[in-house]
Fold:
Amino acid sequence: MSLDALREEILRKARAKAEAMIKSAEEEAKKILDEAMREYTRRYELVREAELRELRDELSKKLSEKNLEVNTNLLNLKNELIEALRKEILSKINEMSDEERRKSLKKLINECLNEIRTSRRVRVCVVERDVPLVKDVLRELSVEDRVMEIKTLPPESVGGVLIETEDGSLGLDNTYATRLERLMTFIYRKLNEEVFGG
Structure:
């Protein structure tokens, strides 16, 4: 074999070896690049998930704070409405004329006596302002003989009547304060259901 042919053969083998090395290097570089891209994507997803989780937590916290604020405001509004209504009703009760109070006492005493249904004597309790009115009502209802005494209720009863048997075993509280509390409980529940949806 001639020197030129030998050189050509060496060059051909060298080129082939170089091409194989280049091809192997390209494949290795592609593997490294693919692995780097997978690692980058994995890290990117981890960072993205962490940021999304942090954002969700922050939004959830803000939403909870807003819900608490709204619920507190609603509760305050409900309480303000109830208190304003209570004051309005108390004002109207205090402004009642003697004739209106007399009619009211008559109705309340009748309710109590019909509810108690006893032949025993009873004690009638009213606020001091209503003592003369209740005496008239008892005469009008012809039940004076059933009443053993008329006692005075504290002013916070606002008015109305409390009737109990002589031995205290039966009694019915028909004072305005008690009736107002029952009414306020009912109104509060209705306000929750119909206005505030709760």
Notes: The chain has a mean pLDDT of 88. Residues 157 and 177 are 5 Å apart (CA to CA). The radius of gyration is 46 Å.
